[in-house]
Amino acid sequence: MKKDIKNLTLKELEGFFSSLNEKKYRAKEVFNAIYKEKRENFSEITTLSKELRKTLDNIFYITTFKEVSRKTSKDDATKFVFELSDKRLIESVLIKNTNNIGRTWFTACLSTQVGCSMACQFCATGKMGLIRNLEAGEIVEQFLQLEKISPVSNIVFMGMGEPLLNYENVKKAIEILTDENGRELGKRRITISTSGITPMIYKLADEIPSVKLAISLHAAIQRKRDSLMPGLKNYPLNKLKEALIYYNERTGNTVTLEYLLIDNVNDTKSDAEALLKFSRDLKFVKVNLIHYNEIPSISFKPSKKEIEFQKFLLSNGLRTTLRLSKGTDVSAACGQLATNSKESLQFKI
């Protein structure tokens, strides 16, 4: 059975060419062709001999997704649904950003799993259950598909799935996309968002310290977090805080705490006080308060106390922003990603 060549790092590809008694630099030529020149067939890599191209074609394939649908929101977020080789579906989002002086750039929001096992009560993806992990090449291919629209300068792993429960494939995808012989994206332009898989936060700090970290916190009171995010009961807040202190000390990076404000659920003064207390021992920290995006079949509503909640945190010295997620009108915003076709639902667990 053929293998996806996009699952290989440069080092692994060099090892393959060495096994054929070919020079290692052939791997760099292939990387350049796929990730810089965006070649999708081995026949197009004319720096290689016809014989070598045939050998590659007999052993590997260059994965390309079928685009199932594309919707662009009023605020310049484009949601894509891609079909994988096994007919399952994933969603990715291309977000256009513009600053106050008119400079624009694009961020890719990538998925790491088909579905998710965390079962967060406010999230559409969590209602799917976990179907499977994405391979490294499937994560990379999302990025390459989005770059067909516009060059991407930032990646956020905030799509479908829990990235740290697919850590090795996410790590490999980052290695491929940041390789200087390929796409050469800067690691500091990449953010991994996790619900709080504490053992993997230590690993992330040790192995990919340049990558930024965001925590989907959403409650700093344990019983409320257990209710909102039942898949995290084995990762209590005190252990999460210890892991974040280690991450701060090991990397020197700021930790971003993501906090959806849900009406009459996690938006009281005691919730704000708990969030402030949780943040105090973190040396480098900021809070992103997020407007809750309503999801059909989920009864939660956006908080009416967003400004009040933010003012309390700011007045106590905690750096806090209030963020409106883009793409709400095409279900591309935070928590709204979930494939709902027959192809995906038949694998629901």
TrEMBL record:
It is an enzyme of class 2 (transferase). Residues 102-331 form the Radical SAM core domain. It catalyses: adenosine(37) in tRNA + 2 reduced [2Fe-2S]-[ferredoxin] + 2 S-adenosyl-L-methionine = 2-methyladenosine(37) in tRNA + 5'-deoxyadenosine + L-methionine + 2 oxidized [2Fe-2S]-[ferredoxin] + S-adenosyl-L-homocysteine; adenosine(2503) in 23S rRNA + 2 reduced [2Fe-2S]-[ferredoxin] + 2 S-adenosyl-L-methionine = 2-methyladenosine(2503) in 23S rRNA + 5'-deoxyadenosine + L-methionine + 2 oxidized [2Fe-2S]-[ferredoxin] + S-adenosyl-L-homocysteine. InterPro entries: Aldolase_TIM, Methyltransferase_A, RlmN_N, RNA_MTrfase_RlmN, rRNA_lsu_MTrfase_RlmN/Cfr, rSAM, rSAM_sf. SUPFAM superfamilies: Radical SAM enzymes. The active site is at 91 (proton acceptor), 334 (s-methylcysteine intermediate). GO terms for biological process: rRNA base methylation; tRNA methylation. GO terms for molecular function: 4 iron, 4 sulfur cluster binding; metal ion binding; rRNA (adenine(2503)-C2-)-methyltransferase activity; rRNA binding; tRNA (adenine(37)-C2)-methyltransferase activity; tRNA binding. Its EC number is 2.1.1.192. It is found in: Cytoplasm. Gene3D superfamilies: 1.10.150.530, Aldolase class I. GO terms for cellular component: cytoplasm. [4Fe-4S] cluster binds at residues 116, 120, 123. Binds 1 [4Fe-4S] cluster. The cluster is coordinated with 3 cysteines and an exchangeable S-adenosyl-L-methionine. Keywords: 4Fe-4S, Cytoplasm, Disulfide bond, Iron, Iron-sulfur, Metal-binding, Methyltransferase, rRNA processing, S-adenosyl-L-methionine, Transferase, tRNA processing. Its cofactor is [4Fe-4S] cluster. S-adenosyl-L-methionine binds at residues 161-162, 193, 216-218, 293. Its main location: cytoplasm. Reaction proceeds by a ping-pong mechanism involving intermediate methylation of a conserved cysteine residue. Specifically methylates position 2 of adenine 2503 in 23S rRNA and position 2 of adenine 37 in tRNAs. Belongs to the radical SAM superfamily. RlmN family. This is Probable dual-specificity RNA methyltransferase RlmN. The lineage of its organism: Bacteria, Pseudomonadati, Caldisericota/Cryosericota group, Caldisericota, Caldisericia.
